[in-house]
Specification:
404 residues, 2 domains, six-stranded parallel β-sheet, 17 strands, elongated, disordered C terminus
Length: 404
């Protein structure tokens, strides 16, 4: 039993108007969608509702128009690509509230699909304005949230509508919440977390929450340099937040009290300049970084140590690459760990959940993204979930209310 209603809880849908919040915030260049990953993620919900006879009305934001219509941020730009991947006609409705929208929807037939204009063209969207919520709610008979990536925002279309209409989780949202509950809510233990990226400052709350929840914490990326510096290691010219050494020590202390084992690199890959394939690359013990060098990746001995720790675990959560993966050869540690987690997952030994834009890009680069148990494309929402926060869009689904 889930704590939220899903499409399985819906009855007869023929002719019913489904307001479906999705994520259509995709990159567009010269009028063309350059990455349709988020569009494809909506298909299971949209196709199911359409096949069941609902009139499917897609709500989404696009860019940051700051409450005013801006032609370059119109969702009409996304319609051709969406029509192509859906393989069905898709209407475009020029507003997400008002008389024009009501009249257009009234003329639609069961099973038809429409994309409504950018919700952020209205100031009240980000303010969760009750008047805008009421105007949106007037367009539909029930509400489906299928946009986990926007669930950390208490906006009119992500949170407000769930209190005005019968509310359900779409298939992508359902999959996300089920996977995240399995990873951190009630995981198979031992549980490990891999946290990388550039700065501790952006993930302080994540780290503080995780050391109280996980059995093993593997730290990579430039944030590992801050931990190493806090322990007295000279990281030379490496990116590190020296002003946060005390915070790093407090996290290590909290981990010790919680019996969470923290794994930091024992060897690193260094160079004198941050460019692809520099002539000065070498792998050294963490105590042997020269004054004119910077740490740009975790070394192979560290990766082997991390893999041994993961072999003891049953579940792993990953956010953030282990090195400067966008430049060769500093992608080596991230790729090697991704390969190892992929193999353990495929062998049925590990439940693997990863999330965040850089993490997904790194796993795609490694060619193993499809081998993880679950991959979340959400950025901010995934991080806030790792911080242990309750996401407004999810909370609204967990507590279904009768329409006012």
């Amino acid at each position: 039993m889930t704590s939220f209603q899903t499409l399985d809880d819906l009855g007869q849908l023929t002719g019913k108007r489904a307001l479906v919040r999705v994520d259509l915030n995709v990159p567009v260049q010269e009028g063309k969608v350059t990455d349709d990953t988020r569009l494809r993620a909506t298909l299971p919900t949209v196709i199911e509702l359409s096949d069941r006879g609902a009139i499917v009305l897609l709500l989404a934001h696009f860019g940051r128009p700051t409450g005013k219509p801006r032609p370059e941020m119109s969702l009409s730009l996304v319609v051709p690509a969406y029509r192509e991947i859906l393989g069905r006609p898709v209407r475009f409705i020029e507003d997400c509230v008002g008389e024009v929208a009501l009249q257009t929807i009234a003329a639609m037939h069961p099973g038809e699909v429409a994309i409504l204009e950018n919700t952020r063209f209205h100031e009240g969207e980000e303010e969760n304005d009750p008047a805008l919520v009421a105007a949106m709610a007037a367009l539909g008979d029930f509400y489906v949230n299928d946009a986990f990536s926007a669930a950390h925002r208490a906006h009119a279309s992500t949170e407000g509508l769930a209190h005005r209409l019968p509310a359900y989780a779409g298939r992508a949202m359902e999959a996300e919440l089920t996977a995240l509950a399995a990873a951190l809510g009630n995981p198979k233990r031992p549980l490990a977390a891999v946290v990388g990226g550039a700065k501790i400052s952006t993930k302080l709350d994540v780290l503080r929450n995780l050391v109280s929840k996980v059995d093993h914490l593997i730290v990579g990326g430039a944030m590992a340099n801050t931990f190493l510096a806090a322990r007295g290691v000279d990281v030379a010219k490496s990116l590190a937040e020296h002003d946060l050494k005390q915070s790093a020590l407090e996290i290590l202390d909290a981990a010790g009290r919680a019996q969470c084992v923290v794994h930091l690199p024992c060897d690193v890959v260094v160079a004198k300049e941050f460019v692809a394939d520099p002539p000065s690359v070498r792998t050294v013990d963490i105590k042997d970084v020269a004054p004119d060098e910077m740490i740009l990746d975790v070394g192979p001995a560290s990766v082997a140590m991390f893999v041994e720790a993961l072999k003891l675990c049953r579940t792993v959560i990953w956010n953030g690459p282990l090195g400067a993966f966008e430049k060769h050869p500093f992608d080596a540690a991230t790729v090697a760990l991704a390969d190892a987690i992929s193999s353990l997952t495929q062998d049925g030994l590990l439940v693997s959940v990863a999330g965040g834009g850089d993490t997904v890009a790194a796993l795609n680069q490694a060619g193993v993204a499809g081998n993880f148990t679950f991959l979340s494309t959400a950025g901010g929402a995934f991080l806030e979930w790792m911080e242990g926060r309750t996401l407004p869009g999810v909370r609204a689904l967990e507590r279904p209310e009768k329409p006012q």
